[in-house]
Amino acid sequence: MSQEEPVYPVHTEIQEKASIKSLDQYREIYQRSIHEPDHFWAKYAARLEWFYPYTHVQQCDMKRAVFRWFSGGKLNASFNCIDRHLDKLGDKPAIIWEADEPGSGHTITYSELHEHVCRAANVLRQFDIKKGDRVILYLPMIPELAYMMLACARIGAIHSIVFAGFSADSVRDRILDCQAKMVITADEGLRGGKKIPLKSIVDSALRGVDCVKSVLIAQRTFAEIPLVPGRDHLLNQEMKRQRPECPAEWMDAEDPLFILYTSGSTGKPKGLLHTTGGYMTYVAATHHHVFDYRPGDVYFCAADIGWITGHSYIIYGPLANGATTVMFESTPLYPNPSRYWETIERLKVNIFYTAPTAIRALAREGESHVLKHDRSSLRVLGTVGEPINPEAWEWYYKVVGESRCALVDTWWQTETGGIMITPLPGVTDLKPGSATRPFFGIQPILMDENAKPITSQEATGHLCLARPWPGMARTIYGDHERYVQTYFAPYPGYYFTGDGCRRDKDGFYWITGRVDDVLNVSGHRLGTAEIEAAINGVFQVAESAVIGYPHDIKGQGIFAFVILNTEAEDLSQEDLVSAIREECRNRIGKLARPDKILIVPGLPKTRSGKIMRRILRKIAEGEYKNLGNLTTLADPDVVDFIIDAHKTMDRQT
Ligand code: 7RM
């Protein structure tokens, strides 16, 4: 018996003015995008300004994992985000910087953005940054981050942004992996009233590193910071000295735009490489249709630019479309749980995009914080990063959106560059918890256990994509073989997403979560192997196994099962737990600290030594029976020991 889910129909007022106005129109365009992809994507590429035309729309081969879009064509991402809007939109706000203290930020018009980015680009040149050089940006959510991204793009340097919550070790790993020549940081970050010593973290990260020749420092708090002579320079002083003009480099469509690191199923993060023409075409098209962006709208994506969501939907997509984009430095709870709604009221935000984890955290605080503020400007709400549970969806839709806004649950990945499965505001009837239907040109396929595409409408399987799209990452920087192995080897001829998925009788897609060893904690990707490596770095630890378990706010919490060294049990349980959490924080970052740590005498392993995580996941959920077939375990008794330990832990907490 299939249970009837509630369906929320499209709002006619939104539909009337939307760029795509009906399901029939969507279907017609979708069919064309699949049958004549070159014609379809050429139309969207034409929305950008090109310095020189491309020769082929695409030269792609899913079997060999070779992808080229619009190659031969020349363009510049920074020019497309700024210069081409100057005639008509020079005085229009490009970025509204919403600083940590409510209302203390400022607005940057397109002309001002042009001036800042040109000066910043000239600073990069002054420090010998050339086309193709890698620049690490380790910055908080301040305008300088936007300036430096666009400045890199302007001169053809490749930026790699490292989220400002990552540790010195993580920064160092990324610097070394891409052999960065420059690091740009700030004296301190400021978030929710708390300071983060970014410059000092960079100093630690750079110990023993010789590829980095210079460090530029933006001043956010004007804290006293020591400068290394010859290496460190204050960004602001350097920008002042430069001319406010800088020609945009002609980049090939397939020249790299940026590298962004993300976690995979091994201990080493992958540097996904995105290129210029296809990426820009894709983020501009999706930003326009998915958010039903209309000229004059104030658009607010609350993500951090350190993640792909911020790259594509705070900076490149919105600015390519000449939008006003809000850059938010603070947190949903600072100074109180009204922050988003107060900001939306003050800035008259029309489109708001955030993560399910934030919605759950705010729903818990009660609706009074929302109702206090006028949200009548809102038209479209969005979510991204993880599956949204129907309860949180309904709260967002009804309480925040007053049941009159469209709600787009957008599924996509760092690898995809832009939104892939999503409702469209004027098109899609909504079912809470479903990302609904594919965007134009995207063909989802569900695979069965035998690696065969499932042809029936209703199905559950591993989510693959059957066709290339312009926004896809082209490689893993410095490790093309890993790119091929991770994404194209599991299902030859298809891109494998790493997600599980269900398709219902209406053709709606429901993402069920990762099927590999990647966790999604508050919408952030973390590899279990990365966390295990950090835990194993604690002297007393012999071995560990990390799994995700359902968590009310974070979506997934981190559960670590830890075996101790027999000769090293000289720490109290409490000290050991804090040592492990501290190590995770130091090696990766705060977000990698386990929520639960359980010391166990052994782990459930097969005779070949593979940890059976399925058993650990059940025990973590308090499911001690129905653990499945245990006969393949090397030592079945270990399961009872772990269950006993877990029972004791549950009694204590
Ligand atoms: C944009 C982003 C990607 C992983 C992906 C999924 C999960 C993202 C949704 C979602 C269900 C969604 N990039 N995911 N969006 N799951 N519904 N709307 O988050 O590279 O950091 O993560 O996130 O598992 O594979 S990411």
Describe this structure in words.
It is a single chain. The chain is of the alpha/beta class and about 650 residues long. It has two domains: about 10-500, 3-Layer(aba) Sandwich (Rossmann fold); about 520-650, ANL, C-terminal domain (GMP Synthetase, Chain A, domain 3, 2-Layer Sandwich). Helix content is about 30%, strand content about 25%. The protein has 21 helices and 30 strands. The strands form eight sheets. Strands 12-11-8-6-7-14-15-23 form an eight-stranded mixed beta sheet, sandwiched between helices. Strands 5-4-17-16-18-19-20 form a seven-stranded mixed beta sheet, sandwiched between helices. Strand 14 (about 255-260) and strand 15 form a beta hairpin. The radius of gyration is 24 Å and the shape is globular. It starts with 11 loop residues before the first helix and ends with a helix. It binds 5'-O-(acetylsulfamoyl)adenosine. The site of 5'-O-(acetylsulfamoyl)adenosine has 24 residues, from helix 12, strand 20, strand 24 and strand 25.
Looking at this protein, list some descriptive labels.
seven-stranded mixed sheet; 23% strand; Rossmann fold; 653 residues; GMP Synthetase, Chain A, domain 3; binds 5'-O-(acetylsulfamoyl)adenosine; eight-stranded mixed sheet; alpha/beta; single chain; 2 domains
